[in-house]
Specification:
The complex is a heterodimer of chains A (166) and B (248). With 166 residues, chain A is an all-alpha fold. Chain A has 8 helices and no strands. In chain A, 71% of the residues lie in helices and 0% in strands. Chain B has one domain. In chain B, 23% of the residues lie in helices and 31% in strands. Chain B is of the alpha+beta class. Classes of the chains: A mainly alpha (166), B alpha+beta (248). At the A-B interface, helix 1, helix 2, helix 3, helix 4 and helix 5 of A face helix 1, helix 2, strand 8, strand 9 and helix 4 of B.
Chain lengths: 166, 248
């Protein structure tokens, strides 16, 4: 491998998989998604100028959106697998986090991508717009809608009310 | 109480850090080479073949003739599993009965094939049938936007899928299209390989059939299975269903 591709994979693959997991919510699918994105990046590697991250992230986001949108009947859906609880958390905290996690899973792929890129990857909204191929205004709108949905999601609302009574 | 943005950041970080993901550089490069081969094959000369089977590991028993020359009853096979003559599609109130356009039949399993065909409508569908309904089948093809999608399941007679205008790539009617198919025998060690490669996570906590199907979507799982199983006798067929261009 030449031109730094192997080094890029070694340095970034773990982070890319984690970001992909937040989109797909399944580790196997996340690894498959990242492998697909990096294979495409490998083909175009010599033509990529500067930091490859935006290019690779764009492939991951677009591919995930496409997989989610695909309409072939009978295909295997990505399962939402249960996670091991962090023993440091109190049960109530776990309930809160589980409810929020479920609410994130109910977002559209684009909204989830904006949330993950902004809040997990720490990308500015301008960078997010570049990655998802939308205008800054459109990304702001998606972010606002996503945050609104997370706040009014029935699970979150129930959780908040119960928590307020304690 | 409402959540703060910091709660969201913390949750995403905790969830993302919970796993130990990894992708192999070799697997990435192999997949890249496959993509490049497919692109080159589709760009050069494939257009001359209206319907054909590209042999990867296995040997096709027969090849499907061009769709324009294919009488509907030619789908009846002399031996091996029989393909249904039609593929009924119901989308809301819309019902479309697609007819068998390209039958492809094979007499080995434990290999992978690429089936190439020329769609006549956006309603192109496929169905896979096998002599052994417990055989494993994985399909993969290019979707809208150029990405790859597919399905993995036992060959129980219901394995298939269909397109409509919302899912076909923009060049669907302008060039030959393909579906890649892997067929593994019923006793293929899917569970063992899945556990080795992906860990085979499952809500039930064990590598059940659903988790094995999920694992089969992983290219490394399929490649290891091919290496372990090897090609062996076994009849199966895939039918491509479509409707005339005039009804598109």
């Amino acid at each position: 491998m030449d031109d730094g591709f192997a080094e890029y994979v070694a340095q970034r693959q773990s982070r890319l998989c984690r970001m992909a997991y937040l989109l797909t919510r399944d580790w196997g699918t996340a690894e498959d998604l990242v492998q697909t994105a990096l294979a495409r990046a490998w083909l175009a590697w010599r033509r990529i100028e500067g930091n490859p991250d935006p290019y690779v992230y764009r492939i991951i986001v677009n591919t995930h959106t496409s997989w989610w949108r695909r309409r072939w009947r009978g295909e295997v859906p990505a399962e939402t697998l249960p996670e091991t609880a962090d023993p440091r958390d109190a049960p109530a905290e776990l309930d809160d986090q589980a409810a929020l996690w479920n609410a994130i899973g109910a977002l559209s792929p684009r909204q989830r991508a904006v949330i993950v890129l902004h809040y997990y990857e720490g990308r500015t909204l301008t960078q997010v717009a570049d990655i998802v191929g939308s205008s800054l205004g459109a990304v702001k709108s998606q972010l606002n809608r996503a945050l609104t949905r997370l706040r009014v999601d029935p699970d979150v609302r129930t959780m908040s009310l119960e928590r307020g009574r304690r | 109480m409402r959540h703060e943005e910091s709660d969201l950041r913390e949750l995403l970080t905790v969830r993302a850090e919970a796993g130990q993901p990894s992708v192999s550089l070799d697997a990435i490069v192999r997949r890249g080479r496959r993509i490049r081969r497919k692109r080159r094959a589709l760009a050069s000369g494939v257009a001359a073949a209206v319907a054909a089977v590209v042999l990867v590991n296995g040997l096709p028993r027969t090849e499907g003739p061009p769709v324009a020359a294919e009488p509907p009853d030619s789908a009846v096979v002399d031996q091996g599993p029989e393909l249904p003559a039609t593929f009924p599609v119901r989308l809301g109130g819309t019902r479309v009965d697609l007819t068998l356009a390209h039958p492809f039949r094979f007499d080995t399993v434990g290999a992978t094939w690429t089936v190439i065909f020329e769609p006549t409508s956006h309603w192109t569908s496929y169905r896979v049938v096998c002599d052994d309904p417990r055989a494993w089948v994985v399909t993969s093809q290019r979707l809208k936007g150029g990405e790859t999608g597919g399905t993995a399941a036992r060959c129980d007679g219901l394995l298939g899928g269909h397109h409509d205008k919302l899912s076909t790539p923009s060049d669907w009617l302008r060039r030959p299209q393909s579906i890649r198919v892997w067929v593994f025998p019923a006793d293929a060690p899917v569970r063992e390989v899945a556990q080795e490669v992906t860990g085979c996570p499952s809500p039930a906590g064990e590598c059940d059939e659903s988790a094995q199907e999920q694992a089969l979507m992983n290219a490394d799982v399929r490649e290891r299975l091919l290496a372990r199983v090897g090609e062996r006798p076994g009849n199966w067929a895939i039918g491509i269903y479509d409707r005339p261009a005039a009804q598109n």
